[in-house]
Amino acid sequence: MDIFTHVVAISLLLFTTGNSSLIPFGILGAVIIDIDVAYFFIARRKPSLYLLYHGGINHSFFGAAILSVLGFGMLLALSSVGLLPGSLQEVGVLAAFAAVLAGAFLHLFLDWLPAPGLPLLYPLTEKRYGVSLYPMSFYLGITALSLISLGIILSWGFTSALVSVYWAFFTGITVVSLGLKWYVYQQTHGTSYPTFHPLRWIVIREESSSYPVMVYEIFRGVIRDFSYEKYTNITPSEARMYDTLVEVKRHTYFSYIPAVKKNGDEIIFHDPIREEGLISYPPWYPSVTVYAGKEAP
Questions:
Q1: For 96-123, what is each residue's pLDDT tens digit?
Q2: Rg, C-alpha atoms of the chain
Q3: Better-scored residue on pLDDT, 71 or 41
Q4: Which of 188, 213, 229, 238 is geometrically suited to a Cys-Cys bond with 203, CB 3.0 to 4.6 A?
Q5: Residue 251, Cβ density class (10 Å: 0-12 exposed, 13-18 middle, ≥19 buried)
Q6: Paired sense of beta strands 266-270 and 259-263, if any
Q7: Residue 27: CB partners within 8 Å, gap ≥ 6?
Q8: Burial of 68 (0-12, 13-18, 19+ CB in 10 A)
Q9: Which of 5, 139, 130 is nearest to 59 (CA)?
């Protein structure tokens, strides 16, 4: 989700529960997770740091907890030298820290809904979890809703009417998106990903040697149907020899379809879904090439 939605969601939640004084702390937890957008210049320098990209370590329960502790520790340090207003002492240290955690974990939940995958259980596993729920047009609608709500809050403050209207629209968009995704699954029995058009979805299924892919449109059915081979001119055992290479692991982490093909001495690990632009996010490393057992320069 966008930063505006994270800020508005935690603010309205704390207001509704009678904890308005904790809103600044909740906002801190909600926005600190996205500090990983600043890690890009670090992550791209070394392949093994691919989990520092946006949507990586910070977007795990472990990372969110660590960032909450660090952020709150900064607040305590500022408060101890008199650089922070007295609100921290007024609301209580434990309550303030709980609000920071609430903001951070609400951030994970809101990102889990639209994301193709977040490593929520890192460091136990790098497996990514996500619902891929909202068509981009709906996602932009939520952003617009949050921006309007934020403008109202800054101009006139919080009201019960605003809370009701915001959550009614947010819930309505979510329920409609869930209904569309459920319908597509019932018709295709594959893993679906939304496009900008709310009625058009990309559906991926996995078979023993290939990935059937279809573009499915509600009311029209399948409008495009094709398949990608898992292995081309290479055996699975040969391909697995390169699984531990950091560049290959990085590529696989970001991929929807981890396909492999051999062309002479070149062994190309690629994600045709991202290469062809059917799904553009994440944009990083749609393919990697290795040569004769070592990584390409």
A1: 999 999 999 999 999 999 999 999 999 9
A2: 22
A3: 71
A4: 188
A5: buried
A6: antiparallel
A7: 7, 10, 11, 103
A8: buried
A9: 130
Q: What is the mean pLDDT of residues 69-82?
A: 86
Give CA–CA dist 16/125, Å, rounded: 35
Sheet containing strand 191-194, edge to edge, reads 191-194, 200-204, 210-217, 221-229
- Residue 189 above 80 pLDDT? yes
pLDDT at 100: 97
Residue 220, CB half-sphere, CA atoms under 13 Å: how many?
Answer: 10
Q: How far apart are CA 142 and CA 229, in angstroms?
A: 37
21 three-class SS: helix
| Residue 61, C-beta contacts closer than 8 angstroms, at least 6 positions apart | 105, 108, 120, 121
- Placement of tokens 């607040």 in the chain: 75
User: Domain residues of the chain, as ranges?
Assistant: 3-131, 230-295
Give Cα separations from 110 to 2, 67, 115 (angstroms). 9, 17, 9
**In DSSP terms, which residues pair with 81 in a beta bridge?**
none
Give the tens place of pLDDT for each residue, 210-255. Answer: 999 999 999 999 999 999 999 999 999 999 999 999 999 999 999 9
Helix axes 93-112 and 23-32, enclosed angle (nearest 10): 40
**pLDDT band (50, 70, 90) for residue 86:** low
| One-character DSSP codes across 65-95 | HHHHHHHHHHHHHHHHTT-S-THHHHH-HHH
For the chain, the maximum distance between any two Cα atoms, rounded to a whole number of angstroms, is 69
Match 């699954």 to its residue by tokens: 185
